[in-house]
């Protein structure tokens, strides 16, 4: 029986600012991620940090290249590269300042990801994935994109709205668009290890 090689020690930690585009109130998370993560794992990190449930497909777009789950390319001229085969450190070279992340091609949740800093890893401090800050709740899954989310917020926040009871039931109770808990987010990130 073969032995498993030890994981590669990180050489770089990226401080990423992930912002959900075109949604108010502004939804964002600030993360530290190591260069040793695959983009597939970074997708899972984004899902946990933002509050998504990983129920839909995703895609990264970095320097004109698309990474995700390869399949029927349809309208695209370039192929989707397998995100599980590409590490963060290899894709985010020094020339990259930011990239796009899209989740759920139906609701089309687009995120702008900015590389705020490239740090040296310190085993006692930052050599694992952690959310260091954030603000506001991400929209519920399958709410209908930007327009559906605006309609949902109008209904859920107004008890006299015709759809209030239906939205209350659909979402499982009250919804606070300003809700964010960094401790709960980091608990979700720890469960990915």
Features of the shown structure:
Structural Genomics Hypothetical 15.5 Kd Protein In mrcA-pckA Intergenic Region, Chain A; 5 helices; 26% strand
Write the layout of secondary structure elements.
Layout: E1 13-20, E2 28-34, H1 39-50, E3 58-62, E4 65-68, E5 80-82, H2 88-91, E6 98-103, E7 109-119, E8 130-135, H3 145-156, H4 164-171, H5 182-190
Helix pairs in contact: 1-5, 3-4
Mind explaining what this structure looks like?
This protein has 193 residues and is α+β, with helices and mostly antiparallel strands. The chain folds into two domains: 13-137 and 179-190, Roll (Structural Genomics Hypothetical 15.5 Kd Protein In mrcA-pckA Intergenic Region, Chain A); 138-175, no CATH class. The protein is 23% helix and 26% strand. The protein has five helices and eight strands. Strands 5-4-3-6-7-1-2-8 form an eight-stranded mixed sheet. Helix 1 (39-50) runs antiparallel to helix 5 and helix 3 (145-156) packs across helix 4 (164-171). The chain starts with 12 loop residues before the first strand and ends with a helix. 26% of the residues are buried.
Structure, briefly:
The chain is of the alpha+beta class. The chain has helices at residues 39-50, 88-91, 145-156, 164-171, 182-190, and strands spanning 13-20, 28-34, 58-62, 65-68, 80-82, 98-103, 109-119, 130-135. 23% of the residues lie in helices and 26% in strands.
């Amino acid at each position: 029986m073969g032995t498993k090689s030890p994981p590669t020690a990180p050489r770089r930690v990226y401080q990423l600012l992930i912002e959900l585009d075109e949604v108010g109130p502004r939804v964002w998370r600030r993360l530290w991620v190591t260069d040793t993560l695959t983009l597939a794992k970074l997708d899972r990190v984004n899902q946990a940090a933002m509050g998504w449930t990983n129920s839909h497909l995703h895609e990264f777009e970095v320097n004109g290249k698309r990474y995700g789950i390869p399949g029927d390319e349809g309208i695209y001229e370039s192929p989707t590269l397998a995100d599980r085969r590409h590490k963060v450190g290899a894709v985010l070279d020094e020339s990259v300042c930011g990239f796009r992340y899209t989740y759920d091609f139906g609701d089309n949740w687009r995120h702008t990801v900015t590389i705020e800093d490239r740090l040296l890893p310190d085993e006692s401090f930052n050599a694992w994935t952690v959310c260091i800050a954030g603000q506001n709740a991400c929209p519920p899954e399958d709410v209908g994109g930007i327009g559906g989310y605006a309609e949902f917020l109008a209904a859920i926040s107004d008890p006299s709205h015709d759809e209030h009871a239906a939205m209350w039931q659909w979402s499982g109770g009250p919804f606070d668009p300003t809700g964010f808990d960094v401790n709960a987010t980091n608990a979700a990130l720890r469960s990915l290890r």
